[in-house]
Amino acid sequence: MKHFPYPFHPFSFEVGEHDIPSLFTCPFHYVPHRLSVCAAEEVQHYLASRGDWAYELEKGKMFGVLVVRKDSRIGFLAAYSGILCGRNDHEYFVPPVFDLLQPDGHFKTAEREISALNRRIEERDSHEERRELQQQAEFLKERCEQELRAARAAMKEAKQRRDRLREEAAGAVSEEELIAESRFQKAEYKRLEKHWKVRIEEQEAALEKWNEETAALKAERRQRSARLQEWLFSRFRMLDAYGEEKDLWQLFREYGRAVPPAGAGECAAPKLLQYAYRHGFQPLAMAEFWWGASPETELRRHGYFYPSCKNKCEPILKHMLRGLDVEPDAHEESKYSHQEPHIIYEDEWMMAVDKPSGMLSVAGKGDAPSVQSWLHSRFAATETPLPVHRLDMDTSGVLLIAKNKEIHKRLQQLFETCDIRKRYVALLDGIVPAEEGFIRLPLSPNPDDRPRQMVSAQYGKPTVTRYEVLERCDGVTRVAFYPLTGRTHQLRVHAAHPEGLNTPIMGDNLYGRRSARLYLHAESISFRHVVTGQLLRISAPVPF
């Protein structure tokens, strides 16, 4: 029997040609293949057996599996993102693309030198001598101001006395004596100013010298960090299926990014493909899953499969997938895109359509169908109507359209002043115990993984949703959502987040589990007509 590298794990069952996927997984939008699910289950059994890792795993970690073939054998490779229990070289998993953790390697040596600089800078910033120099400078400025203020008061009082002498005792004191006294006092004030200026400048010079030495250390730290970063990213030389190598600098610059983000190249998916290419394995399918608690800044659920991140992995994987027959991105080429919006209300000023799931509200970067492009083709001979608001691509339901710019402006003002009421219906993947309530969470875009949103007390904007349970059946909860604010992915995050309902919307590939569609529908919208003043309630039947 041929020897296979240890990270290769054969399946415990026979895999036939009919079991092998015809196309490789699109890592950014996928339903995991059956073999990927089996491989993930094997990895999860292994993780459960590692009691010594339990504490670390409870914190949460992304893992990945890559189904591969070599010669006549089919199995899988496994990887984890970043570091696990202080190591990046655990035997069960593929090794890193580039090993940062060698104790005597260039990276760790340079890192120790930068850490030593950090300690020196921190020591200087908090050193007693610096505090004394700072305090003395502040003390001298305060004393200077006190003495100059007292001198100005004395000069003012002397002037008032001279003025009285001129009026009350004319001739008793000569004008020349009074002028001489005034000149003397002004000269004394200037000497006092100069005295304090010299003392303060001497003190500030001593403080500035201290700060300049610290600034020189900080400049050295920046230079060393930049050189180390440049060296590091050049060592991550990523392969594609043709055997072509590109380092991270090349990949991210080709993608319009000047500098790769920290941790690029250390996620599970690039590790898996790199190992497969290096060792002659044919990639067949891939999947990534989260294990453990959700991180504070992201929304991850234990055991759920997730797409690869956009920020760190998209530029890398776009290169690494070259040479593989990859599934089309289901989010870009939606299977619902053949459907058209259905007009459910229309008058001379506006209209409303029932947008199908899988269609964009407005045109995106590519040529994917959208309500906006549909309107343009349908009303090409007249002024093209404009969508007033947006629904997520995967959300279906009522979408308002204005027939001219003035009506568009008026309708948008209704949204801005919260004078429009919306009702959504969703199916949640689990049971919600409460009958009704409010969800309040601060949401902001996740800069490391767009278009995901995250809960952030520091950066998030307040969001509020009222909900009521409509039905519970077979582990699924049907709810009505009434959003009182309108942030991106608000309902999806409010449903899935542990501080919300902790029950994702079915089919939510970003915050839950992907299914045939996202089971979220904008059922109705209510407002007063911006022209007639009539109260309107426009509805679209729930398709699930």
Brief summary of the model shown:
The chain is an alpha+beta fold. 37% of the residues lie in helices and 21% in strands.
Word description of this protein:
- There is one protein chain.
- The protein has helices spanning 34-49, 54-58, 106-125, 128-168, 175-235, 248-254, 268-278, 310-320, 371-378, 405-416, 490-496, and strands spanning 9-10, 61-70, 73-80, 237-239, 245-247, 282-291, 305-306, 342-346, 350-355, 386-387, 396-402, 421-428, 436-445, 453-455, 461-473, 476-483, 520-528, 535-539.
- The chain is of the alpha+beta class.
- The strands form three sheets. Strands 8, 9, 10, 11, 12, 13, 14, 15, 16, 17 and 18 form an eleven-stranded mixed sheet that branches. Strands 1-3-2-6-7 form a five-stranded antiparallel sheet, with helices on both faces. Strands 4-5 form a two-stranded antiparallel ribbon.
- Helix 3 packs antiparallel against helix 5, helix 4 (128-168) runs antiparallel to helix 5 and helix 7 (268-278) runs parallel beside helix 8 (310-320).
Brief descriptors of the model:
11 helices; flat; 11-stranded mixed β-sheet; alpha+beta; 5-stranded antiparallel β-sheet; 544 residues; single chain
